[in-house]
Amino acid sequence: MEAKKFTEKIYGPYGDAWKVIKILALAEDNSPALDGVLRNYMNEVGNFKEKYEGNQFAELLYSMLLNADDTIMRMNR
C-alpha cells in the first residue's frame, strides 16, 4: 500500500482512536465526574464511527473503543 493510502486508511483512524481513548484518562469508576466523561467519550466514539464508516481497520478500532472504557476505568483505580 502506498504511503498516502496507508496514512488515510490506517494511520488516520489509529490517531483519531488514540485521541478518543485519551478521554478515559480521567475516567475513574468512583469519580463524581464519571458520567460527564463517559458521555463525552461515547459521543466521540459515535463521531469516530461516522467519520470512518466503510473502513475495515477503523471498524476494528471502533469495536475496541466500545469495550475500552470498562477496562480503562478499572485500571484507573
Describe the structure concisely for a colleague:
The protein has helices at 3-22, 34-51, 56-75. It is mainly alpha-helical and 77 residues long. α1 (3-22) packs parallel to α3 (56-75).
Question: Notable features of this structure?
Answer:
77 residues, single chain, mainly alpha, elongated
Largest beta sheet, briefly? none
Beta-strand residue percentage: under 5%
Number of domains: 1
What distance separates the N and C termini?
41 Å
Number of strands: 0
Secondary-structure content class: mainly alpha
Helix % is over 70%
Gyration radius, rounded: 14 Å
Question: In terms of per-residue confidence, which ranges show pLDDT below 50 for 5 or more consecutive residues?
Answer: none
| Helix count, DSSP H or I runs of 4 or more residues | 3
Shape: elongated
Helices and strands, in order, run as: HHH
Q: Could you state the oligomeric state of the chains shown?
A: single chain
Description:
- The protein has three helices and no strands.
- With 77 residues, it is mainly alpha-helical.
- It has one domain (3-75).
- α1 packs parallel to α3 and α2 runs antiparallel to α3 (56-75).
- The mean pLDDT is 92.
SSE blueprint and pairings:
Blueprint: H1 3-22, H2 34-51, H3 56-75
Helix pairs in contact: 1-2, 1-3, 2-3
